[in-house]
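Handout, tutorial session.
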Amino acid sequence: MRAARATTLAVVLLGASFPAFGASEGLETLEEAFAVETRLFEAAFLRYRTIRGEQRQSLEALKRASREAEAALQSQTLGVAVLWDLDAAAEGALHELVAVSSRAGEHRRTVLRHLERLTELGTAIERLRDRSLVRTEKLDGRWRLELSPSEVGLLDLRLDGTLVTGAYRLSGGEQGSVRGTYANHRLELERVDTVGGVDMRLSGVHDPETGEISGRWETRGPSDVSGSAGGRDAVTGAIRGSVETPEDEGELRDLTGEWAARKISPSQEE
């Protein structure tokens, strides 16, 4: 029996259909697969955060090298050979940023693939459990989070009376906690980033029939919820990784967008 479950678990993780087992054993297999996929997601997310740190360092190195080359050229006091060396250093820093950004993109796509598999496994678990309306309405558990225009992640929620606590992780590398209230199917949350503190408010309505949450987020920009140099900031639309800094970079303005969440796994205590 254990060998059969192990074989089924491997097939589930590969995304294929699996042989017909009893409902109880099939559910247990899917839950084991979900646990394994969660650990793989955590490991992939950690690798992505590491490469994002390297990406930020490469960007700063490019900015420094570009400033030095430009200042030397404008001063007109250095020899041509020195100017060529500084230009070569700036060019090398640019190539390094492109290379590390490419690796960051690969890691980000790996995280997204794990998120997709977690979603599919969670949906299969929900079907096998044949959750009733009362069970679907429960807020506790893990949710697949989508923040417009292009950010996705995982959101873990726990409800105690009307008080909500939890944690989130985004494919852009951000992570932290959430806190708020839930009453009459309406959810009000504050997002607390591990680096920036309280940086976003989310309001949403939980539909007990579909088990989905949808609503709007708001923050004070500029803010980056998407993550990689060379693309556009998901909130402000500014080019990330640009050496030139916009004149209004330090200005803050109200930013809003839509968000949605769909439960992919119930609370482990259920």
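The second record follows below. Compare its token runs with those of the first.
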Amino acid sequence: MAMESEVFSANSGTVVVAHELKAPLSLMRQLALSLELEQNPAEVQQISQRIVATSDRAIRQVNDLLKVARLDDALFEMEPVNPRAVCDDVVGELWRLFSFNRRELQIDYRNKRRLVVGNRQLLYSVIYNFCLNAMNYGGEELPSIVSVRDKYGTKVRIAVRDFGPAIPTKIWREIKNGYVEQPVDIAMRPGSSGLGLYIAAKFANYMQGDFGLIRHRDGTSFYIDLPISGQLSLV
């Protein structure tokens, strides 16, 4: 019985991955077909840019899955990282995708401790996946917010706030207890990336960070807490 449950669980995770990787491919196909019919040069350029942005997102998901598979190889060194700089880079990459979807992404930095102990590549992917989840919820009046704050005096919290539907209690408990062992489908949040949360959980665990979420009355904040670095702040 336990073996059947494990097989079902593994199959469920595979279905989530397949669905999420299929979605951008289907969108690019649809955009390519519309591109063939479009005559307006401005519209052609916009569609082309959207195809590039969508393909970049799909490629990053695949690359992140490859990184997950190689975490045991200890290829990702821990070092002092400036979380504000990483957040700036993520926002810089995603602003066009947010714009295409008529969404806004804001930043709110309040941390005094400028460096954390982590891996820049992995932290980038964590924040990137948090932002992609948030993109589906909100708009110009309800922007997604990337924040960096000191926490407990020994850690820095990097979080992304959205205004989407509530996270189901079962998934909230899994994330709270660090039990995200496979990509999950979040039924109450269509368009939300269970694959992205799985990747974020794996990378956070590798960096010995705390991965979690806060349920608000009008949305959710996904976060990662990383230990501060004793090295002097770098500009």
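Points raised in discussion: Confidence is low (pLDDT under 50) at residues 1-11.
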